[in-house]
């Protein structure tokens, strides 16, 4: 992790800044990006936020959302130009350029100073300035700390604060994961002080489902959940046709994997979805079992110890079969993952 003085020096004069985050941004990815963008604009920089793909509509309320550029083949030339003209390129909430698709190689070749702000495990070494902290609960927490260390805490207003709050709230599972440190609660106390509407943010993110999304959840839990108590594992697999039947939108499957993990005694949960171009996987674990190591070793992915993702170019059926066939070799780890002494 670099000293804050390096960032102070870099941002001393107004600069052309771009901020990007991972494919299918979640609330931490978008919230940390828009929170940082709001701050840097107040400091006089010209800031553009570019996401490598679209993101759920339940994030559209964030301040600065209307100015976000969503990469597509159609605006490829514009995005390439912005990347090549940026003096500073912030990479938020991911640590591996493969996570941002086509934009990864454009950024790798760009001449601007690359600044990594992230909390995932095992970063790829591509940044010039590194503000990664794997013990942070959220990238939004690191952004808050960076603004504070720059001596600019007073510039955090309700709009910036609500974007950062969204990132911290969602990445801590609404303040229940072990990552919810004392520092997290102190930050939230500060955000309340400046007028962040915490309850509204929670409602906007979690209580904005369409009727069809809720019926899809019911279907997935009733008909698609597979429970393997002998491996303390539960998973849900979803076909492309099922996504279509429920008119599934970006973000509609978010959180589904957590239901599989909420069964008593289950230590490992997976959500396996046929996204047509590839099969996308979400992994969650409790206790000592590392979802990150599992995703990394078998599904070209990674993330955090207890929350990771991966992908497969096999069919959905073959991916599910591979997933199930791997479980016996993890049996001991899975059976001992949960410490029940509490
Ligand atoms: P989710 O299951 O919510 O999509 O992702 C869980 C965590 O794993 C997030 O922190 C996310 O950034 C990370 N993640 C998801 N998919 C991938 C992937 O394909 N590769 C890597 N390295 N990380 C991923
Ligand atoms: Mn995050």
From TrEMBL:
Residues 17-168 form the DDH domain. Gene3D superfamilies: 3.10.310.30, inorganic pyrophosphatase (n-terminal core) (3.90.1640.10). Pfam families: DHH, DHHA1. One of its GO terms (molecular function) is nucleic acid binding. Residues 247-323 form the DHHA1 domain. This is Bifunctional oligoribonuclease/PAP phosphatase NrnA. It comes from Pontibacter cellulosilyticus.
């Amino acid at each position: 992790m670099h000293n804050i003085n390096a960032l102070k020096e870099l941002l001393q004069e107004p600069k052309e800044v771009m901020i990007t985050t991972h494919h299918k941004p979640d609330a931490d990815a978008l919230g940390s990006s828009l929170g940082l963008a709001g701050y840097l604009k107040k400091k006089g920089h010209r800031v553009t936020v570019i996401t490598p793909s679209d993101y759920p509509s339940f994030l559209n309320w964030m301040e600065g959302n209307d100015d976000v550029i969503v990469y597509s083949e159609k605006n490829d030339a514009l995005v390439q130009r912005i990347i090549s003209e940026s003096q500073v390129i912030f990479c938020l909430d991911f640590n591996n350029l493969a996570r941002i698709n086509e934009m990864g190689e454009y950024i790798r070749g760009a001449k601007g100073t690359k600044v990594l702000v992230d909390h995932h495990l095992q970063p790829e070494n591509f940044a010039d300035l590194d503000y990664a902290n794997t013990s942070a609960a959220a990238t939004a927490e690191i952004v808050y700390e960076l603004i504070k260390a720059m001596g600019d805490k007073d510039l955090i207003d309700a709009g910036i604060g609500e974007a950062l709050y969204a990132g911290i709230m969602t990445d801590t599972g609404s303040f229940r994961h072990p990552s919810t440190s004392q520092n997290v609660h102190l930050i939230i106390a500060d955000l309340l002080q400046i007028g962040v509407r915490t309850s509204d943010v929670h409602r906007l993110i979690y209580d904005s489902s369409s009727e069809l999304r809720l019926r899809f959840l019911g279907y997935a839990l009733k008909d698609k959940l597979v429970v393997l108590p002998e491996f303390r594992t539960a998973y849900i697999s979803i076909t492309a046709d099922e996504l279509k039947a429920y008119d599934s939108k970006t973000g509609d499957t978010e959180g589904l994997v957590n239901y599989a993990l909420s069964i008593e005694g289950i230590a490992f949960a997976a959500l396996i979805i046929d996204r047509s171009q590839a099969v996308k996987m979400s992994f969650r674990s409790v206790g000592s079992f590392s979802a990150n190591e599992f995703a990394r070793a078998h599904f070209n992915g990674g993330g955090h110890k207890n929350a990771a993702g991966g992908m497969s170019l096999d069919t959905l059926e073959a991916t599910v079969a591979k997933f199930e066939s791997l479980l016996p070799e993890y049996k001991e780890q899975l059976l001992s993952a949960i410490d029940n002494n509490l």
